[in-house]
Amino acid sequence: MLTEIRDASLHARGRERIAWARRFMPVLGAVAGELDLTGRRVGLVLVLEPKTANLALALRDAGAEVVVTCPAGETDDETAAALVSEGVAVLARSDASPEQDRDFALRMLRQRLDVLVDDGSRVVRLAHAAGLLDGLAGAAEETTSGLRPLRVMADRGELRIPVLAVNDARSKYLFDNVHGTGQSCVMAALDLTGLQLAGTVCVVAGYGYVGQGVARYARALGARVIVTEVEPFAALRAHHEGFEVRPLLDACPEAALVFSATGVAHTITREHLGAMSPGAVVAVAGGVPEEVETGDVPPGVTVLADGECVNCAAAEGNPIEIMDLSLSVQALAVDHLVTHGPAMAAAVHPMPGELDERIARLKLRALGIGLDVPSALQREFLERGL
To answer: Where is the S-adenosyl-L-homocysteine hydrolase NAD binding domain (predicted)?
Structure first.
Protein backbone atom coordinates (compact mmCIF):
# COMPACT_ATOMS: atom_id res chain seq x y z
CA MET A 1 0.00 0.00 0.00
CA LEU A 2 1.26 3.48 -0.93
CA THR A 3 2.00 4.93 2.49
CA GLU A 4 4.46 7.16 4.32
CA ILE A 5 3.57 8.38 7.80
CA ARG A 6 5.50 9.39 10.90
CA ASP A 7 4.54 6.73 13.46
CA ALA A 8 2.23 3.78 12.79
CA SER A 9 2.11 2.94 16.51
CA LEU A 10 -0.18 5.93 17.15
CA HIS A 11 -3.16 4.25 15.50
CA ALA A 12 -5.14 3.29 18.63
CA ARG A 13 -5.62 6.83 19.91
CA GLY A 14 -6.34 8.02 16.36
CA ARG A 15 -9.07 5.43 15.92
CA GLU A 16 -10.70 6.50 19.19
CA ARG A 17 -10.80 10.12 18.07
CA ILE A 18 -12.19 9.20 14.64
CA ALA A 19 -14.92 7.12 16.28
CA TRP A 20 -15.81 10.02 18.58
CA ALA A 21 -16.23 12.37 15.62
CA ARG A 22 -18.34 9.81 13.74
CA ARG A 23 -20.94 9.88 16.53
CA PHE A 24 -21.83 13.45 15.57
CA MET A 25 -21.77 13.05 11.76
CA PRO A 26 -25.15 11.54 10.83
CA VAL A 27 -25.44 13.29 7.47
CA LEU A 28 -22.14 11.96 6.17
CA GLY A 29 -23.19 8.48 7.25
CA ALA A 30 -26.51 8.76 5.45
CA VAL A 31 -25.00 10.19 2.27
CA ALA A 32 -22.07 7.79 2.06
CA GLY A 33 -24.30 4.79 2.67
CA GLU A 34 -25.98 5.41 -0.69
CA LEU A 35 -22.80 5.78 -2.77
CA ASP A 36 -21.27 3.16 -5.03
CA LEU A 37 -17.69 4.07 -5.90
CA THR A 38 -16.50 0.55 -6.61
CA GLY A 39 -13.28 0.56 -8.58
CA ARG A 40 -12.79 4.32 -8.37
CA ARG A 41 -9.63 5.96 -7.09
CA VAL A 42 -10.10 9.14 -5.06
CA GLY A 43 -7.38 11.49 -3.83
CA LEU A 44 -8.09 13.54 -0.71
CA VAL A 45 -6.10 16.66 0.10
CA LEU A 46 -7.68 17.94 3.29
CA VAL A 47 -6.57 18.91 6.78
CA LEU A 48 -5.79 15.46 8.17
CA GLU A 49 -7.64 15.10 11.47
CA PRO A 50 -10.44 12.88 12.87
CA LYS A 51 -13.34 14.58 11.11
CA THR A 52 -11.84 14.46 7.63
CA ALA A 53 -10.69 10.90 8.29
CA ASN A 54 -14.36 9.97 8.42
CA LEU A 55 -14.75 11.15 4.83
CA ALA A 56 -11.83 8.95 3.77
CA LEU A 57 -13.35 5.94 5.51
CA ALA A 58 -16.83 6.66 4.13
CA LEU A 59 -15.49 6.76 0.57
CA ARG A 60 -13.53 3.57 1.20
CA ASP A 61 -16.65 1.88 2.52
CA ALA A 62 -18.44 2.97 -0.67
CA GLY A 63 -15.90 0.96 -2.66
CA ALA A 64 -13.32 3.59 -3.55
CA GLU A 65 -9.57 3.22 -3.30
CA VAL A 66 -8.61 6.29 -1.29
CA VAL A 67 -5.25 8.05 -1.17
CA VAL A 68 -4.77 10.86 1.37
CA THR A 69 -2.09 13.54 1.52
CA CYS A 70 -1.78 16.72 3.54
CA PRO A 71 0.85 19.40 4.27
CA ALA A 72 2.90 18.82 7.40
CA GLY A 73 1.45 21.75 9.34
CA GLU A 74 -2.07 20.35 8.97
CA THR A 75 -1.27 16.68 9.60
CA ASP A 76 -2.31 14.88 12.77
CA ASP A 77 -0.04 11.84 13.08
CA GLU A 78 -2.50 9.85 15.20
CA THR A 79 -5.15 10.22 12.52
CA ALA A 80 -2.71 9.29 9.78
CA ALA A 81 -1.74 6.12 11.64
CA ALA A 82 -5.38 5.21 12.25
CA LEU A 83 -6.25 5.51 8.56
CA VAL A 84 -3.31 3.32 7.57
CA SER A 85 -4.44 0.72 10.10
CA GLU A 86 -7.83 0.78 8.33
CA GLY A 87 -6.25 0.11 4.95
CA VAL A 88 -6.27 3.69 3.61
CA ALA A 89 -3.16 4.90 1.79
CA VAL A 90 -1.68 7.98 3.49
CA LEU A 91 1.22 10.16 2.40
CA ALA A 92 1.50 12.70 5.21
CA ARG A 93 3.64 13.34 8.24
CA SER A 94 3.80 16.29 10.60
CA ASP A 95 7.60 16.57 10.28
CA ALA A 96 7.70 16.64 6.47
CA SER A 97 9.58 19.38 4.66
CA PRO A 98 7.88 21.47 1.96
CA GLU A 99 9.80 19.41 -0.60
CA GLN A 100 8.46 16.19 0.91
CA ASP A 101 4.92 17.58 0.94
CA ARG A 102 5.21 18.29 -2.78
CA ASP A 103 6.64 14.82 -3.43
CA PHE A 104 3.74 13.24 -1.53
CA ALA A 105 1.29 15.13 -3.71
CA LEU A 106 3.06 14.04 -6.89
CA ARG A 107 3.11 10.43 -5.75
CA MET A 108 -0.61 10.59 -5.14
CA LEU A 109 -1.27 12.14 -8.56
CA ARG A 110 0.72 9.38 -10.26
CA GLN A 111 -1.90 6.87 -9.06
CA ARG A 112 -4.18 7.96 -11.94
CA LEU A 113 -6.98 9.28 -9.77
CA ASP A 114 -10.58 9.42 -10.94
CA VAL A 115 -11.43 12.35 -8.66
CA LEU A 116 -9.36 14.77 -6.60
CA VAL A 117 -10.74 16.54 -3.51
CA ASP A 118 -8.55 19.57 -2.84
CA ASP A 119 -8.11 22.28 -0.22
CA GLY A 120 -6.62 25.51 -1.51
CA SER A 121 -6.29 24.07 -5.07
CA ARG A 122 -2.61 23.41 -4.39
CA VAL A 123 -2.68 19.91 -5.84
CA VAL A 124 -5.05 20.73 -8.72
CA ARG A 125 -2.57 23.36 -9.86
CA LEU A 126 0.35 21.01 -9.32
CA ALA A 127 -1.38 18.38 -11.46
CA HIS A 128 -1.65 20.91 -14.28
CA ALA A 129 1.97 22.00 -13.95
CA ALA A 130 3.26 18.43 -13.83
CA GLY A 131 1.02 17.13 -16.62
CA LEU A 132 -0.64 14.55 -14.37
CA LEU A 133 -4.25 14.95 -15.46
CA ASP A 134 -4.75 11.74 -17.42
CA GLY A 135 -7.85 9.89 -16.29
CA LEU A 136 -8.93 12.62 -13.87
CA ALA A 137 -12.68 13.13 -14.26
CA GLY A 138 -12.62 16.27 -12.16
CA ALA A 139 -11.84 17.90 -8.83
CA ALA A 140 -13.74 19.37 -5.92
CA GLU A 141 -12.42 22.50 -4.19
CA GLU A 142 -13.62 23.45 -0.72
CA THR A 143 -12.13 26.89 -0.08
CA THR A 144 -12.69 30.44 -1.26
CA SER A 145 -8.96 31.01 -1.61
CA GLY A 146 -8.63 27.80 -3.62
CA LEU A 147 -11.38 28.66 -6.08
CA ARG A 148 -9.94 32.09 -6.82
CA PRO A 149 -6.87 30.89 -8.81
CA LEU A 150 -8.89 28.15 -10.51
CA ARG A 151 -11.33 30.74 -11.83
CA VAL A 152 -8.38 32.76 -13.13
CA MET A 153 -7.09 29.63 -14.87
CA ALA A 154 -10.52 29.02 -16.38
CA ASP A 155 -10.73 32.60 -17.66
CA ARG A 156 -7.34 32.20 -19.30
CA GLY A 157 -8.27 28.88 -20.87
CA GLU A 158 -5.69 27.05 -18.74
CA LEU A 159 -8.04 24.84 -16.70
CA ARG A 160 -8.12 21.32 -18.17
CA ILE A 161 -10.63 19.56 -15.92
CA PRO A 162 -14.06 20.34 -14.45
CA VAL A 163 -14.00 21.61 -10.88
CA LEU A 164 -16.98 21.55 -8.54
CA ALA A 165 -17.06 24.64 -6.32
CA VAL A 166 -17.85 22.86 -3.06
CA ASN A 167 -17.10 26.06 -1.15
CA ASP A 168 -19.98 27.81 -2.90
CA ALA A 169 -22.58 25.27 -1.78
CA ARG A 170 -24.94 26.95 0.69
CA SER A 171 -24.73 23.98 3.02
CA LYS A 172 -21.00 24.66 3.19
CA TYR A 173 -20.32 28.40 3.24
CA LEU A 174 -23.32 29.48 5.32
CA PHE A 175 -22.21 27.21 8.16
CA ASP A 176 -18.60 26.09 7.78
CA ASN A 177 -17.18 29.48 6.82
CA VAL A 178 -19.27 31.52 9.27
CA HIS A 179 -20.00 29.36 12.30
CA GLY A 180 -17.28 26.74 11.95
CA THR A 181 -14.26 28.88 11.14
CA GLY A 182 -15.57 31.79 13.18
CA GLN A 183 -15.84 29.75 16.37
CA SER A 184 -12.73 27.62 15.91
CA CYS A 185 -10.36 30.46 15.01
CA VAL A 186 -11.41 32.68 17.89
CA MET A 187 -11.25 29.80 20.36
CA ALA A 188 -7.89 28.62 19.00
CA ALA A 189 -6.36 32.07 19.45
CA LEU A 190 -7.64 32.31 23.02
CA ASP A 191 -6.53 28.79 23.92
CA LEU A 192 -3.04 29.37 22.53
CA THR A 193 -2.53 32.66 24.34
CA GLY A 194 -4.62 32.25 27.50
CA LEU A 195 -5.87 35.80 26.99
CA GLN A 196 -9.28 37.25 27.85
CA LEU A 197 -11.14 38.74 24.92
CA ALA A 198 -13.77 40.68 26.86
CA GLY A 199 -12.97 44.38 26.98
CA THR A 200 -10.20 44.23 24.38
CA VAL A 201 -10.01 45.48 20.81
CA CYS A 202 -10.14 42.78 18.14
CA VAL A 203 -9.46 43.74 14.52
CA VAL A 204 -10.81 41.54 11.73
CA ALA A 205 -9.34 42.14 8.28
CA GLY A 206 -11.89 41.02 5.71
CA TYR A 207 -15.65 40.72 6.05
CA GLY A 208 -16.44 37.80 3.79
CA TYR A 209 -18.16 34.80 5.31
CA VAL A 210 -15.14 33.82 7.40
CA GLY A 211 -14.57 37.39 8.58
CA GLN A 212 -18.25 37.70 9.49
CA GLY A 213 -17.99 34.60 11.65
CA VAL A 214 -14.80 35.72 13.39
CA ALA A 215 -16.25 39.17 14.06
CA ARG A 216 -19.49 37.77 15.48
CA TYR A 217 -17.80 35.28 17.80
CA ALA A 218 -15.29 37.86 19.01
CA ARG A 219 -18.09 40.32 19.76
CA ALA A 220 -20.09 37.60 21.53
CA LEU A 221 -17.13 37.11 23.87
CA GLY A 222 -17.06 40.78 24.77
CA ALA A 223 -14.49 42.25 22.39
CA ARG A 224 -14.82 45.62 20.75
CA VAL A 225 -14.50 44.55 17.12
CA ILE A 226 -13.13 46.73 14.31
CA VAL A 227 -13.59 45.45 10.75
CA THR A 228 -11.33 46.48 7.89
CA GLU A 229 -12.18 46.00 4.22
CA VAL A 230 -11.17 46.88 0.66
CA GLU A 231 -14.58 46.06 -0.86
CA PRO A 232 -17.22 48.78 -0.38
CA PHE A 233 -20.30 46.56 -0.08
CA ALA A 234 -18.63 44.32 2.50
CA ALA A 235 -17.58 47.39 4.49
CA LEU A 236 -21.10 48.79 4.33
CA ARG A 237 -22.54 45.47 5.45
CA ALA A 238 -20.20 45.37 8.45
CA HIS A 239 -21.29 48.91 9.35
CA HIS A 240 -24.97 48.00 9.16
CA GLU A 241 -24.35 44.95 11.31
CA GLY A 242 -23.01 47.15 14.09
CA PHE A 243 -19.25 46.92 13.62
CA GLU A 244 -16.84 49.81 13.54
CA VAL A 245 -15.15 49.96 10.12
CA ARG A 246 -11.76 51.58 9.64
CA PRO A 247 -8.61 51.22 7.51
CA LEU A 248 -6.36 48.44 8.77
CA LEU A 249 -3.33 50.66 9.41
CA ASP A 250 -5.43 53.02 11.52
CA ALA A 251 -6.85 50.16 13.60
CA CYS A 252 -3.58 48.29 14.29
CA PRO A 253 -2.25 50.45 17.16
CA GLU A 254 -5.34 49.72 19.29
CA ALA A 255 -5.54 46.01 18.59
CA ALA A 256 -4.93 43.33 21.18
CA LEU A 257 -5.82 40.62 18.64
CA VAL A 258 -5.79 40.88 14.85
CA PHE A 259 -7.34 38.27 12.57
CA SER A 260 -6.63 38.16 8.84
CA ALA A 261 -9.68 36.66 7.16
CA THR A 262 -9.14 37.68 3.55
CA GLY A 263 -7.51 34.64 1.95
CA VAL A 264 -5.27 37.12 0.09
CA ALA A 265 -1.49 37.23 0.38
CA HIS A 266 0.16 40.31 1.92
CA THR A 267 -2.94 41.37 3.83
CA ILE A 268 -0.98 42.12 6.99
CA THR A 269 2.35 43.61 5.96
CA ARG A 270 5.45 44.63 7.87
CA GLU A 271 4.01 48.14 8.00
CA HIS A 272 0.89 46.87 9.74
CA LEU A 273 2.93 44.74 12.14
CA GLY A 274 5.14 47.72 12.93
CA ALA A 275 2.08 49.80 13.82
CA MET A 276 0.90 47.30 16.44
CA SER A 277 1.49 47.79 20.14
CA PRO A 278 3.70 45.45 22.17
CA GLY A 279 1.67 42.43 23.24
CA ALA A 280 -0.48 42.36 20.10
CA VAL A 281 -1.34 38.92 18.74
CA VAL A 282 -1.96 38.12 15.05
CA ALA A 283 -3.78 35.07 13.72
CA VAL A 284 -4.85 33.87 10.28
CA ALA A 285 -8.38 32.53 9.81
CA GLY A 286 -8.56 30.35 6.75
CA GLY A 287 -5.55 31.64 4.95
CA VAL A 288 -3.04 31.38 2.14
CA PRO A 289 0.76 31.51 2.25
CA GLU A 290 2.09 34.97 3.18
CA GLU A 291 -1.30 36.33 4.19
CA VAL A 292 0.75 37.70 7.07
CA GLU A 293 4.31 38.76 6.24
CA THR A 294 6.17 36.85 8.95
CA GLY A 295 9.73 37.53 7.81
CA ASP A 296 10.41 40.45 10.16
CA VAL A 297 7.94 40.51 13.05
CA PRO A 298 8.64 43.34 15.51
CA PRO A 299 9.60 42.45 19.09
CA GLY A 300 6.53 42.15 21.30
CA VAL A 301 4.17 41.16 18.47
CA THR A 302 3.20 37.49 18.24
CA VAL A 303 2.06 35.75 15.05
CA LEU A 304 0.30 32.52 15.96
CA ALA A 305 1.05 29.23 14.16
CA ASP A 306 3.73 30.93 12.03
CA GLY A 307 0.99 32.64 10.04
CA GLU A 308 -0.74 29.41 9.03
CA CYS A 309 -4.45 28.78 9.43
CA VAL A 310 -4.66 28.96 13.23
CA ASN A 311 -7.60 26.62 13.76
CA CYS A 312 -6.03 23.85 11.66
CA ALA A 313 -2.30 24.28 12.30
CA ALA A 314 -2.55 24.81 16.06
CA ALA A 315 -5.97 23.50 17.13
CA GLU A 316 -8.64 20.92 16.34
CA GLY A 317 -10.25 22.59 13.31
CA ASN A 318 -13.94 23.33 12.89
CA PRO A 319 -16.67 21.80 15.07
CA ILE A 320 -17.71 18.24 14.22
CA GLU A 321 -21.36 19.05 13.51
CA ILE A 322 -20.33 21.74 11.02
CA MET A 323 -17.90 19.45 9.26
CA ASP A 324 -20.66 16.87 8.96
CA LEU A 325 -22.24 19.25 6.46
CA SER A 326 -19.08 20.19 4.58
CA LEU A 327 -17.78 16.64 4.26
CA SER A 328 -21.18 15.48 3.07
CA VAL A 329 -20.95 18.05 0.28
CA GLN A 330 -17.55 16.60 -0.60
CA ALA A 331 -18.91 13.05 -0.68
CA LEU A 332 -21.71 14.01 -3.06
CA ALA A 333 -19.27 16.04 -5.15
CA VAL A 334 -17.10 12.94 -5.61
CA ASP A 335 -20.11 10.90 -6.67
CA HIS A 336 -21.28 13.62 -9.07
CA LEU A 337 -17.86 13.90 -10.71
CA VAL A 338 -17.54 10.14 -11.09
CA THR A 339 -20.90 10.03 -12.86
CA HIS A 340 -20.91 13.29 -14.81
CA GLY A 341 -17.32 14.57 -14.81
CA PRO A 342 -16.25 13.07 -18.14
CA ALA A 343 -19.03 14.99 -19.90
CA MET A 344 -18.53 18.29 -18.04
CA ALA A 345 -16.65 21.22 -19.53
CA ALA A 346 -13.25 22.23 -18.16
CA ALA A 347 -14.57 25.03 -15.96
CA VAL A 348 -15.52 25.84 -12.37
CA HIS A 349 -19.04 24.52 -11.86
CA PRO A 350 -21.53 25.20 -9.06
CA MET A 351 -22.59 22.34 -6.84
CA PRO A 352 -25.95 21.12 -8.20
CA GLY A 353 -28.71 22.76 -6.20
CA GLU A 354 -30.64 19.56 -5.62
CA LEU A 355 -27.62 17.94 -3.96
CA ASP A 356 -27.02 21.01 -1.82
CA GLU A 357 -30.64 21.06 -0.68
CA ARG A 358 -30.56 17.33 0.02
CA ILE A 359 -27.78 17.84 2.56
CA ALA A 360 -29.67 20.65 4.29
CA ARG A 361 -32.78 18.49 4.54
CA LEU A 362 -30.82 15.54 5.92
CA LYS A 363 -29.26 17.79 8.57
CA LEU A 364 -32.66 19.15 9.59
CA ARG A 365 -33.98 15.61 9.88
CA ALA A 366 -31.03 14.59 12.04
CA LEU A 367 -31.68 17.60 14.28
CA GLY A 368 -35.37 16.76 14.56
CA ILE A 369 -36.39 20.05 12.91
CA GLY A 370 -39.50 20.04 10.73
CA LEU A 371 -40.37 22.26 7.76
CA ASP A 372 -43.68 23.73 6.67
CA VAL A 373 -45.04 22.69 3.29
CA PRO A 374 -46.49 25.37 0.97
CA SER A 375 -50.25 25.10 0.64
CA ALA A 376 -51.98 24.61 -2.70
CA LEU A 377 -52.92 28.30 -2.74
CA GLN A 378 -49.34 29.33 -2.04
CA ARG A 379 -48.03 27.08 -4.81
CA GLU A 380 -50.61 28.49 -7.22
CA PHE A 381 -49.58 32.03 -6.30
CA LEU A 382 -45.91 31.25 -6.87
CA GLU A 383 -46.58 29.47 -10.16
CA ARG A 384 -48.59 32.42 -11.50
CA GLY A 385 -45.63 34.67 -10.76
CA LEU A 386 -47.80 37.39 -9.24
So the answer is: 177-317
